[in-house]
TrEMBL record:
GO terms for molecular function: DNA-binding transcription factor activity; transcription cis-regulatory region binding. Keywords: DNA-binding, Transcription, Transcription regulation. It comes from the Bacteria. The keyword Transcription applies. This is TetR family transcriptional regulator. Residues 9-28 bind DNA.
Length: 165
């Protein structure tokens, strides 16, 4: 998936896996179904990673970015156009579980009843945007400085969120 782009087909997947051309069709109707299954697994992995961080929004933000950087190809599949147009309920549920972890942490950060309705989406957009900028090499940041940058950005966001609560 990482190296084959839009021309990837189930037939090519079969050839790369060393199985018969019909084998992938026993599990997936289309290549988009395969992308959806891979993305769903990625979202479950991300949700597990975020859950392990507890309820600290800044820590979850850092975990989100680290996950993206350590799983770049998977992360791109998770948020790629083939995945975005999927209606697969398992994929939607898996994606929702990862988002819900960030949303719950944003709510806890602000306190009950005080949260702006857009705060969870803002938290996600912040860490996702930072992850994509880093993945695409758009920031002039050394590998050693990435954790410090992510820490500063997420802590600044959390401070702003608390100030408006």
């Amino acid at each position: 998936m990482r190296d084959n782009g839009p021309e990837l087909s189930l037939r090519r997947v079969a050839r790369l896996a060393g199985v018969s051309a019909a084998a992938p069709y026993r599990h997936f109707r289309t290549i988009d179904d395969l992308y959806g299954a891979v993305a769903a697994e990625g979202f479950l992995m991300l949700a597990t990673r975020l859950t392990a961080e507890g309820d600290d929004l800044a820590a979850l933000g850092r975990a989100y970015v680290r996950f993206a950087l350590r799983n770049a190809a998977l992360f791109r599949v998770m948020f790629g156009t083939r995945t975005a147009r999927s209606c697969d309920p398992a994929l939607r549920k898996a994606a929702g579980s990862a988002y819900d972890r960030l949303a719950e942490a944003a709510r806890r950060t602000c306190g009950a009843g005080a949260i702006d309705a857009d705060a969870p989406l803002s938290a996600w957009a912040q860490v996702h945007g930072l992850a994509m900028l880093l993945l695409d090499g758009q920031l002039d940041t050394s590998e050693d400085d990435i954790d410090a940058l992510v820490r500063r950005i997420t802590e600044r966001f959390v401070a702003g969120l608390r100030a408006t609560a």
